[in-house]
């Protein structure tokens, strides 16, 4: 971020153009650090996105809702308050809005293009309006109270993550009630998996090495503890949806249980993926296997043990 301040100061003006040039260079650097040529990586990711989207739209009739939720979650991460405050310092209020509108449109453009190809024109309009409004509206109010969370400070992922995404959890619960009222089992399963997807996003942020060291256990104990608490707390959030589906779709209890376990397994996979690269962030090499697991969940049975072993080695020097 300090490089951004220098860039804006050197070029004068609002610095928005220089900001996006800097972001492009940073993305290219991340690809090169992962051992991939930026152009090749973009082509591969584009093909993977198209392939995954085609499979998604063939497998479920609610793929467009998956798209909208995915975009809103992505845009929500870009709207983090500290990040917005920093951008406002650099560019001013007008520059901030310009940056946020462009960012939101760029991030949502692959989804919008595919929805247009599938002729979901109404959903495209809804998505465009939503991402622009989220870019323009500023949630400046500082509340004098802290949003209550059923989770303790440990693990920190849930206490902070829940406060930032509680509205998405409520949206998942609302989808579950809509599924029950419409008698649509697939939508209900999607609502349950959406809860696990939201929780999985809690584990994409790296903590300082000091906070890992303070646990005072070995690497295996640390990982098992993380996995145990993640499964316990995520189950408490997803269980209301699962129970609701069980009551109204009791004939499909086997499928409900299977998807519930798949959601837990994917969450565990995200955790071990995170620490398999620690103290570095997850790169393309870790992201591709996770994407493949979404397409073919049985891969989790192989990927989780492998990543757990790699995470143990990574954390071994820090936790003894």
Automatic annotation (TrEMBL):
Keywords: Membrane, Transmembrane, Transmembrane helix. The chain crosses the membrane at residues 35-56, 120-141, 161-180, 187-204, 229-249, 256-276, 288-309. This is ABC transporter permease. It comes from Thermomonas beijingensis.
């Amino acid at each position: 971020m300090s490089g951004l301040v220098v860039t804006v100061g050197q070029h004068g003006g609002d610095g928005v153009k220089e900001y996006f040039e800097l972001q492009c260079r940073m993305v290219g650097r991340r690809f090169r650090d992962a051992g991939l040529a930026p152009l090749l990586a973009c082509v591969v990711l584009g093909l993977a996105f198209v392939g995954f989207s085609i499979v998604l739209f063939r497998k479920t009739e609610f793929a467009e809702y998956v798209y909208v939720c995915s975009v809103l979650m992505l845009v929500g991460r870009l709207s983090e308050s500290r990040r917005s405050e920093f951008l406002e310092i650099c560019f001013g209020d007008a520059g901030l809005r310009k940056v946020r509108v462009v960012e939101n449109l760029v991030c949502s453009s692959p989804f919008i293009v595919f929805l247009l190809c599938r002729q979901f024109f109404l959903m495209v309009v809804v998505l465009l309006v939503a991402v622009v409004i989220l870019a323009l509206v500023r949630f400046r109010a500082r509340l004098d109270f802290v949003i209550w969370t059923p989770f303790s400070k440990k693990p920190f992922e849930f206490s902070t993550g829940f406060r930032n995404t509680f509205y998405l959890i409520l949206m998942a619960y609302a989808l579950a009630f809509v599924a029950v009222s419409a008698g649509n089992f697939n939508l209900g399963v999607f609502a349950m998996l959406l809860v696990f997807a939201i929780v999985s996003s809690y584990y994409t942020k790296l903590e300082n090495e000091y906070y890992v060291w303070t646990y005072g256990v070995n690497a295996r104990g640390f990982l098992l503890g993380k996995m145990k608490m993640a499964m316990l707390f995520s189950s408490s959030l997803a269980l209301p949806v699962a129970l609701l589906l069980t009551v109204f779709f009791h004939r499909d209890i086997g499928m409900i249980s299977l998807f519930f376990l798949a959601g837990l397994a994917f969450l565990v996979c995200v955790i071990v993926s995170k620490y398999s690269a620690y103290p570095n962030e997850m790169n393309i090499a870790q992201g591709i296997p996770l994407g493949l697991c979404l397409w073919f969940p049985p891969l989790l049975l192989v990927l989780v043990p492998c990543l757990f072993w790699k995470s143990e080695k990574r954390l071994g020097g820090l936790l003894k």
